[in-house]
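Suppose you are handed only these lines of text.
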Amino acid sequence: MDIEQFRRAGHEAIDRICEYYYTLQDRPVTARVEPGYLRRALPSEAPQTGENFDLITQDYEKYIMPGLTLWHHPSFFAYFPTGSTFEAVLGDLYSGSVPNPGFNWSASPASTELETVVMDWAAKMLGLDSSFRNCANVGGGVIQTTASEAALVAVVAARSRYTKQHPDVSSEKLLIYITTQTHSLGKKAGLVLGLNVRALEVTVEDNFALRGDTLRRALEDDCAAGLHPFILIGTVGTTSSGAVDCLGEIGLVLEDYPFIWLHVDAAWAGIAMVCPEYRDVCALGDINKYGDSFCTNFHKWGLVNFDCSGFWVRDRASLIDALDVTPEFLRTKHGDAGTVIDYRNWHFGLGRKFRSLKLWFVLRSFGVEGFQRYIRETVKLGNMFASLIRESTEFALVTPPSLALTVFRLEPRASPPVPLAKLNELNRVFYARVSARSDIAFTQTDLSGTFCVRMAVGATRTSEDHVKHAYEILCLEGKAALEEWQCATGEVQ
Ligand SMILES: *Cc1c(COP(=O)(O)O)cnc(C)c1O
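From them, the structure of the protein bound to pyridoxal-5'-phosphate can be written out as follows.
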């Protein structure tokens, strides 16, 4: 493809994408294909001779589009939202047009410098303490691929710091603390690093938030047993129910254990801190007081297309100490002098994408006010949905709504009340019906043995009508599920 062919194909690509967005709402939310559909449809090897580009884009429409789940569809309420804006799409386009691996400052000075600037903008926008910013050259922010990688980086840095201070402790004695509600990234970090993980209990009475007392008891037990907890991964906005660990209590306990690193995983909820009114809910004051590192995903609730995970540390030296390997061919004048950031020492890979470009585009085009408007609008829609659930006689909230996340279940009012096991059965029937539909998407979860359904609002195109329509569908399927379940089990309400 030469430059003029690219110009033509590029214009056509943008036209196709625009058409796609005009028709997005009328498309199925979930992919209606069977496993292996694409292997059956595509040739078993790459073509021997190059093919016509028009044919390739036609096949994109024909084979790829039907296999896509539309996470940015206005009726997508599953998992958590994925950021999606045209500004970010264009940022990715420009980034792809100047391919460079950005591993050190001189690989492309703009790539490193823009990242340090926008990560400081973002830190300020979210209210993070100035010690997390790059400009002071002590802490700093870096864009990671995912929150999982950010957590892994935090664990590696924490381990390095801890073993420096405790050189005689063998790795079998080291312990990563998470809770039973921590995202799978906690257990995965243990798997990857071959370290033991302890999941601290959280209870329904505490809305699944980790309490200081629980942490203190665990620390006393483990330290008495000769074990060495060296990091706690706390969560602001757990995946199942949006729980926020009691970081204030946790921070106070950790004051007695100053070698333990506190990483705060706020992959989804952290972006809400852009609004001053949600900062307390997100425990911003405690993050600023006690957190060693903090992560939130712009690629979730933060308007930037995947991938763009914001990760900040208070002390960049512990990160660099853990990850700096500098062979001769990576040495540079500025790197040796320590006058620049070499981001290869802040993450696992060597090369990295120029992701700050899309974050820069989005931050500038939306402004802080645009971010705030969007977050407020989605929380408002989430609250509207939660009110519909509260007022209904068929459904009930399982936990208090958290920002734009509502966890609920079908719970017909009956006397005596339907026992939990039966309610779970009923809700599985209900969820099977809902998830068989292609016009809407939710996620199931389990909270201490209670099967429930999650509704997360966040797609940029979701309006009040979509939320009301979602509720109508739930009522319809709820009724049908109840009938189906009564028929199958002989239960009569
Ligand atoms: C989504 C989510 C993650 C995982 O995010 P990735 O960027 O996909 O790794 C981790 N923690 C929480 C709380 C999440 O909501």
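What can we learn from it? The chain has a mean pLDDT of 95. The chain has two domains: 1-30+69-84+370-493, 100-354.
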